[in-house]
Amino acid sequence: MEQEKGISFFDILVFIKKHLIFIIATFVIFCVSGLSYSIITDKDSYYSNINFYVTYNGESDSSSINSINYGRLAAKTFAEAINSDSNLWKRIEVKANSNIYAAYGDSVKAPTYTQIGSSISAKYDESLESMIFSVKYTSSDKRIVAPLLNATIDVVKELTTVDNSEENVFKYYKVGTFGYVNEEDVYNNPSKVKNITIISALSGLFIGISGSIIYECSSHKIRNIDDIERVCDIRIIGQVPDLPTESEEK
Amino acid sequence: MNEKAIDISKISPDSEYYAYYNRIQDELKYASLNNHYKVFSSLSPKSALRKTKSLLNIAILFGQDEYRTLFIDLDMRNKTLEDYFDNVNKLGISDYLTNRASKEEIINKSLRKNLDVIFSGSDTIFPSSFLESNKLDEFINELKEQYDYIFVNVAPLYKNTDAVNISRFVDAYLFNVALRKTKTLDIKLAMDIIHKNNLNVIGTIITNSSIKKKLK
Fold it and tell me: What is the pLDDT of residue B160?
């Protein structure tokens, strides 16, 4: 008769049976917590973006390489100007409020920069031989996205045509757009409720199982012959399985 | 116990369970042959480690081998033995020691083949004091004349000194360890008691093993 050593499949089944309630409990608690948290905090958001194509219009060199470099610089400058909440954003805000008022009256207002999610990226488009920089706004209020982007188009155009000051890097560029943004161009970014709940559920499962394993490891229970031989100097003369219960026997 | 407890007599002799118990029975027979052991008991660090069940099954096997066998339950605090038998006389050793029943009244004859059983009997306030009485010694000595093997069930080691007290008439002990239930520390404490009291433990039995095959 072979003596029992190591961890068998039966050991795993016993472990699961023993800790099943704890594992299910942590799973359910985390599921509910994750779901509640995401329902309370997470909402649908709306986004859209506009693209500007920027071509260097300087006097010294108009090669594509310079266009790329200056295009990048323009995108960077523009992003920094907005991020630092300078006059640029205020100008966009004023324009946006004017657009919003035209569409919805007094009931809606353009958000401040901290209330809106924005991202600005730049890349070179070979077919257009121009830098394309893209501005994306995200908001929980669908109505403000298009007016805000359209205000941005107007402000950037003004920068390149009206403002001739030395600090204005946009004056060296020819900036064009692909047109204004309509309400149909604003897309829904679905809520992350499902994702957060799934992550919470998996975390609950992980914590439940690892908690049970830690408990088992720290409980110092005898699991195999080796464990017994380590602490018991009496010779092992046999092992006996559990007899079946009356119902199993029938 | 929710379900009626089942012992090895209810199982087909062809089953693998017999093979495991036969091995232990052979060890006891061998020890008995060499040392003239007649009275066996079983130790366990804590309760619910299948101590009673495994000892009863071993006793049943001795009975099935045509030995006159007696099983005495001296665990007066935890009366699990009664779960294995139907319609028995519940008078037991405590009734005999308090003169409320005679020797003949407390011995349940042939509950299994060649196996008589004495239950622990009526509840008592100080069970340990009964186990120290001379009357018990005399009773066991009488029984030794009548039976080939006597198996004595006693309370676990951690609860009290019962297992140590009966060492004066127990020839050899088995030590029970249950996989996934007994803790290392409990075994160490039990080993300490065993060595300090010079108990004659002839082997360890591992219970709650994972072999569980469908019976024929």
Answer: 76
Q: Which of B184, B189, B201 to mutate to test the interface with A (most CBs of A within 10 A)?
A: B184
Q: Are B170 and B143 in contact (CB under 8 A)?
A: no
- Look at B184 and A230 and tell me if their CB atoms are within 8 Å: yes
Q: Residue holding tokens 């569409």? A: A103
Q: How far is CA B151 from CA A95, A182, B82, B110, in A?
A: 99, 93, 16, 15
A69-118 pLDDT per residue, tens: 766 777 777 777 766 666 778 888 888 888 888 888 877 777 777 777 77
Phi/psi at A38 (nearest 5 deg)?
A: -70, -35
Burial class (CB in 10 A: 0-12, 13-18, 19+), A211: middle
- The encoded tokens of residue B33 equal 């042959």
Cβ pair A129, A55 in contact under 8 A? yes
C-alpha A200/C-alpha A169 separation (Å) is 48
- Residue with the bigger pLDDT between B142 and A46: it is B142
Which among A227, A238, A249 has CB closest to B23? A238
Q: Which of B202, B206, B212 to mutate to test the interface with A (most CBs of A within 10 A)?
A: B206
Using alpha carbons, select from B105, B81, B104 the residue that is nearest to residue B91. B105
B58 CB neighbours in chain A (<8 A) are none
Query: Is B191's Cβ below 8 Å from some Cβ in A?
Result: yes
- Asked if A228 has any chain B CB less than 8 Å from its own CB, the reply is yes
- A·B CB contacts under 8 A: 134
* Three-state secondary structure call for residue A134: strand
Q: What span, in angstroms and rounded, lies between the C-alpha atoms of A84 and A89?
A: 9
Segment among A193-197, B102-106, B139-143 with least mean pLDDT = A193-197
Q: What does the CA dihedral B103, B109, B111, B115 come to, rounded to 10 degrees? A: 90
Tokens 């030590």 sit on residue: B175
